[in-house]
């Protein structure tokens, strides 16, 4: 079989041309059905059938028009008509004349374009045109599933992964060609062999019952524009190829060829658990090439705090024992060792530390000395803030997003009534800045100018911020507590000043609802994720985004910064979690495995692990040093997980969910066991019942946010649905 | 259900709301349907192919309506393109010692906030309720005051001299030759309480509104100037 015929298998759809389709080398005998011009003059689809014994391909894309001008007799009449129709549509009159002259083909050709009503998508959808016999689709699928059942256990689960994409593409082909009855029957009879987690997608596809409906469906756009990826070991692939070779005339090999991307993996075929662990995303698994980049997951070197600490020590000289001083110095020395996994300090520009930041760092350091160490024997104390009367009749309104500042002194929440409310949860009050005349009087060089510029008389426990024109979907307090960022369903992101209590900037990049916003742990950078399927990186001093992280197939629901501010994780409705590099905007990891929308994402304080929770009530833990496989799967919740929080030293993971419970997990055990072996495609995630340390149920209060204070007290909050 | 051209029912919601809220939906649907059919008829006439409205015309009319009301997020290839362009610029360096980092002033909501304020009725002459925004220099202003009987109107036509000496908090506008016309209604009970002699020159003080918003701006401006 000529290799020159393999381009004809390229799908008409503008699928990613860089995908290498391994099946192109399959020795399929050339098919015998030559496309005929249909009675009403439709352009034949040249996808399925290489014209036997010919070097001519007649694609409908303008890119390649390889015509052998040997004379008309060598070419098929239908091909000629197809090409001339194409030229006529593109108004290439002189080209058409030259072609006719050379080939001696002077018959008039009628150009009718009934697929024009679908617009551009018509081109893409035309790939579904086929002359296959509708009756044989069901039999072909049943034969495929029977083959999968009979396969050896070693290959069975990997090969079973192709059942779902083959089924939906068969269904779509039948619908496109107008065979609605057969399509519905196909789904009814064959859905039983598909895993349960595909049920939602199957249902939304089954709602499409005619060609006209296909054009606007977003799920279909995804399926058409991206190939479904399945990873298979060499043995399983050979096994599959043998089956397909027997069935070359049917629709199955054709669909697998065009619509699936089979990623070849060296090594042992995977078990059922391993295969199931990575399935779930809309476009199948992540190809190996997507997860190869090195990630700098280490933390940045802490700046010199020695001088500040020494000042503090001198003040406490009388009280401190000599032993305590020594341990402080040791801890500082540890930071000076170079971490090979840490990014260089100038990889992305970060704001330099001001005096107030250095004082804050000193305070953090002192708090960390007094911190309670949590472990499986020392569980955290939990303080729960319930929002009562959180209905839509009062000012606070239905609470939809909560954030607590890093030093745990400010709680900010956003409501569905577009009002933001900021509360002080420590005795310190929320003060406003003095008016202009008084500000000019204060001494700007004094040590406590930042305290003096605030008006003491204006202290209040609670302040409201109004400005959004839709529900506030997320809130984030900056680490220095000077700014608050909020995102709304009205498509804007607002930055508020917590000193003047007014809105300072409105960022209007996302035009569609923005679902999440987070400040970076070093301040200055913001990341947002929205309905337009992008996550964007902003800074507080530019009104346009610095980076656009595009690649998700559906809304970006949650975003989070890595502790070293170099990476951003985003979770999306396409059920995958992606890790992006801030310096160049590239996607460095794609994590698949969730079977529902990803609704929470968080990094461990050491920076090496990423935990994500989703609507399927499972938490998956990913190792950033590895290559995209889950380290652990924690399942115990029964509803969407909205929030995840790590204790300050990373030994405890707390999760809060819509099922009104807070669960505490032993993260130290997860990391211990993970460190021993290299997590790769052939290891399955750890699923240990003993990882769950404790469950704290509430009375009808779904948990919206969790936050560990610097001394490891867990603060939780949620609206009471009484 | 009233039949007829849906386009002539502009405020269905307000008309029906107090009496029958359940009809609002139906009437809005009917308006939508008649709009679509009208458009379809227009397309059919334009195409001159058929005198009757065809399915294709209705489809086109629906498509036009949908395009006007709903937009979809940009397609993936466009997003990837945009991202590639934007991500190719390196992250800009951060200026040191900046205080609060904000975008340029025109992208911030930090401008001076102006409010309208009524001046107190200090002048015994015509109760001139002259209000002006801080940056307004009107050439001619017509001030109409109604006397208590509501039958007599006093029209005060002023040609204002555009000499403005600015300086917070006062703006002084000099007025030349106010002409006052009094149109009297039926011989009334109310005698206009004022008399004006033409040719007099009056000075009106307009106070610039110095509301609580300016303090929030000035400290920021100070910091920007640093």
Automatic annotation (TrEMBL), chain A:
What GO molecular functions are on record for this protein?
RNA polymerase II general transcription initiation factor activity
> What PROSITE patterns would the database entry show?
WD_REPEATS_1, WD_REPEATS_2, WD_REPEATS_REGION
Alphabetized SUPFAM superfamilies for the sequence: Taf5 N-terminal domain-like, WD40 repeat-like
Q: Name one GO cellular component term.
A: transcription factor TFIID complex
Task: List localization entries.
Answer: Nucleus
Q: Which UniProt keywords apply?
A: Nucleus, Repeat, Transcription, Transcription regulation, WD repeat
According to the UniProt record, where is the region Disordered?
29-70, 311-359
Entries under Pfam families matching the protein: TFIID_NTD2, WD40
* Transcription as UniProt keyword: yes
Instruction: List all Basic and acidic residues biased stretches.
Output: 329-339
- Occurrences of domain TFIID subunit TAF5 NTD2 (ranges): 132-257
GO BP terms: namely:
transcription initiation at RNA polymerase II promoter
Q: Where is the composition biased (Polar residues)?
A: 30-63
Q: Which Gene3D superfamilies match?
A: TFIID subunit TAF5, NTD2 domain (1.25.40.500), YVTN repeat-like/Quinoprotein amine dehydrogenase (2.130.10.10)
What InterPro entries does the database record attribute to this sequence?
A: TFIID_NTD2 (IPR007582), TFIID_NTD2_sf (IPR037264), WD40/YVTN_repeat-like_dom_sf (IPR015943), WD40_PAC1 (IPR020472), WD40_repeat_CS (IPR019775), WD40_repeat_dom_sf (IPR036322), WD40_rpt (IPR001680)
Superkingdom of the organism of origin: Eukaryota
What family does the Swiss-Prot or TrEMBL record give for this protein?
A: Belongs to the WD repeat TAF5 family.
Supply the name of the protein.
Transcription initiation factor TFIID subunit 5
Query: What organism is this sequence from?
Result: Hyalella azteca
From TrEMBL, chain B:
Q: What biological process terms from GO does the record include?
A: RNA polymerase II preinitiation complex assembly
Keywords annotated in UniProt: Nucleus, Transcription, Transcription regulation
Which Gene Ontology molecular function entries are recorded, alphabetically? protein heterodimerization activity; RNA polymerase II general transcription initiation factor activity; transcription coactivator activity
Its cellular-component GO annotations read:
SAGA complex; transcription factor TFIID complex
> Among its keywords, does the record have Phosphoprotein?
no
Superkingdom of this protein's organism? Eukaryota
Quote the subcellular location field of this record: Nucleus
Give yes or no: UniProt keyword Cell membrane. Answer: no
By its UniProt entry, which Pfam families does this protein fall under? Answer: TFIID-31kDa
Coiled-coil residues: none
Family under the similarity heading: Belongs to the TAF9 family.
**Name used for this protein in its record:** Transcription initiation factor TFIID subunit 9-like
Q: Lineage from the top down?
A: Eukaryota, Metazoa, Ecdysozoa, Arthropoda, Crustacea
């Amino acid at each position: 079989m000529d290799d020159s015929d393999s381009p004809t298998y390229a799908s008409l759809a503008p699928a990613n041309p860089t995908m290498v389709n391994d099946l192109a080398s399959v020795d399929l005998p050339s098919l015998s059905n030559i496309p005929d011009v249909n009675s009403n003059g439709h352009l034949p689809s040249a996808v399925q059938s290489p014209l036997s014994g010919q070097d001519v391909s007649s694609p409908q894309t303008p890119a390649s028009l390889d015509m052998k001008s040997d004379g008309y007799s060598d070419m098929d009449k239908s091909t000629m008509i197809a090409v001339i129709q194409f030229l006529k549509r593109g108004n290439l009159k002189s080209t058409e004349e030259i072609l006719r002259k050379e080939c001696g083909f002077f018959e008039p050709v009628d150009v009718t374009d009934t697929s024009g009503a679908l617009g551009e998508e018509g081109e893409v959808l035309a790939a579904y045109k086929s002359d296959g016999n509708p009756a044989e689709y069901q039999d072909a699928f049943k034969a495929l599933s029977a083959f999968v059942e009979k396969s050896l256990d070693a290959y069975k689960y990997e090969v079973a992964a192709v059942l779902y994409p083959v089924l939906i593409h068969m269904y779509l082909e039948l619908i496109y060609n107008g065979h609605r009855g057969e399509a519905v029957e196909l789904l009814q009879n064959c859905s039983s062999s598909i895993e349960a987690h595909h049920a939602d997608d199957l249902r939304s596809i089954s709602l499409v019952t005619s060609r006209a409906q296909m054009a606007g469906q977003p799920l279909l756009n995804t399926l058409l524009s991206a190939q479904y990826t399945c990873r298979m070991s060499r043995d399983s692939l050979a096994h599959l190829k043998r089956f397909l070779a027997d069935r070359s005339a049917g629709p199955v090999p054709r669909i697998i060829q065009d619509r699936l991307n089979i990623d070849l993996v060296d090594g042992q075929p995977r078990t059922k658990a391993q295969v199931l662990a990575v399935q779930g995303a809309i476009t199948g698994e992540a190809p190996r090439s997507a997860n190869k980049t090195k990630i700098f997951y280490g933390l940045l070197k802490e700046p010199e705090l020695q001088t500040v600490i020494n000042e503090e020590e001198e003040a406490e000289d009388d009280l401190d024992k000599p032993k305590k001083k020594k341990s402080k110095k040791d801890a500082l020395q540890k930071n000076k060792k170079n971490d090979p996994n840490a990014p260089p300090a100038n990889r992305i520009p970060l704001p330099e530390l001001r005096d107030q930041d250095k004082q804050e760092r000193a305070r953090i350091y002192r708090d960390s000395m007094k911190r309670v160490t949590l472990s499986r024997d020392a569980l955290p104390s939990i303080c729960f803030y319930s929002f009562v009367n959180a209905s839509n009749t009062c000012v606070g309104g239905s609470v939809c997003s909560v954030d607590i500042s890093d030093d745990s002194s400010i709680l900010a929440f956003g409501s569905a009534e577009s009002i933001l409310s900021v509360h002080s949860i420590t005795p310190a009050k929320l003060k406003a800045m003095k008016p202009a005349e008084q500000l000019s009087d204060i001494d700007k060089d004094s040590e406590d100018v930042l305290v003096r510029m605030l008006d003491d008389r204006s202290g209040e426990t609670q302040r409201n911020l109004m400005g959004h024109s839709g529900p506030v979907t997320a809130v984030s307090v900056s680490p220095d507590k000077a700014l608050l960022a909020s995102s709304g369903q009205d498509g804007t992101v607002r930055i508020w000043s917590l000193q003047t209590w007014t809105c300072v900037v409105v960022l209007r990049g996302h035009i569609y609802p923005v679902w999440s916003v987070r400040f970076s742990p070093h301040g200055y950078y913001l990341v947002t994720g929205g309905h337009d399927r992008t996550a964007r990186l902003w800074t507080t001093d530019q009104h346009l985004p610095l980076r656009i992280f595009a690649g998700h197939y559906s809304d970006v629901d949650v975003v989070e910064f890595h502790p070293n501010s170099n990476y951003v994780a985003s979770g999306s409705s396409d059920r995958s979690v992606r890790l992006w590099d801030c310096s160049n905007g590239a996607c460095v990891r794609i994590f698949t495995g969730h079977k529902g929308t990803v609704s929470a994402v968080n990094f461990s304080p050491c920076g090496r692990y990423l935990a994500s929770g989703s609507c399927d009530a499972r938490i998956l833990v990913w190792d950033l040093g590895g290559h995209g496989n889950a380290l652990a799967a924690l399942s115990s919740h029964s509803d969407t997980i909205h929030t995840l929080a790590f204790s300050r030293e990373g030994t405890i993971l707390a999760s809060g969910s819509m099922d009104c419970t807070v669960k505490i997990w032993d993260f130290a055990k997860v990391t211990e066991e993970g460190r021993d072996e290299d997590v790769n495609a052939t290891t399955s995630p750890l699923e240990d019942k003993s990882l769950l340390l404790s469950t704290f149920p509430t009375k009808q209060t779904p948990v919206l946010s969790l936050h560990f204070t610097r001394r490891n007290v867990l603060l939780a909050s949620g609206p009471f649905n009484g | 259900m009233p039949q007829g051209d849906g386009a002539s029912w502009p405020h269905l919601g307000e008309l029906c709301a107090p009496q029958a809220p359940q009809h609002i939906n139906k009437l809005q649907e009917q308006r939508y349907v008649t709009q679509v059919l009208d458009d379809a008829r227009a397309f059919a006439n334009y195409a001159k192919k058929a005198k009757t409205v065809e399915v294709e015309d209705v489809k086109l009319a629906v498509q036009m309506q949908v395009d006007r009301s709903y937009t979809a997020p940009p397609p993936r290839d466009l997003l990837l393109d945009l991202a590639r362009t934007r991500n190719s610029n390196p992250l800009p360096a951060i200026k040191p010692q900046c205080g609060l980092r904000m975008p340029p002033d025109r992208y911030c909501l930090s401008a001076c906030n102006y409010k309208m304020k009524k001046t107190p009725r200090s002048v015994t002459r015509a109760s001139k309720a002259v209000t002006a925004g801080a940056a307004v220099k009107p050439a001619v202003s017509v001030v109409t005051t109604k006397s208590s009987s509501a039958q007599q109107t006093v029209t005060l036509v002023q040609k204002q001299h555009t000499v403005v000496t600015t300086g917070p908090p006062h703006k002084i506008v000099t007025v030349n030759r106010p002409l006052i016309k009094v149109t009297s209604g039926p011989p009334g009970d109310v005698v206009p309480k004022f008399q004006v002699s033409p040719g007099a020159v009056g000075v009106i003080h307009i106070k610039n509104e110095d509301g609580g918003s300016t303090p929030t701006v000035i400290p920021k401006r100070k910091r920007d100037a640093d």
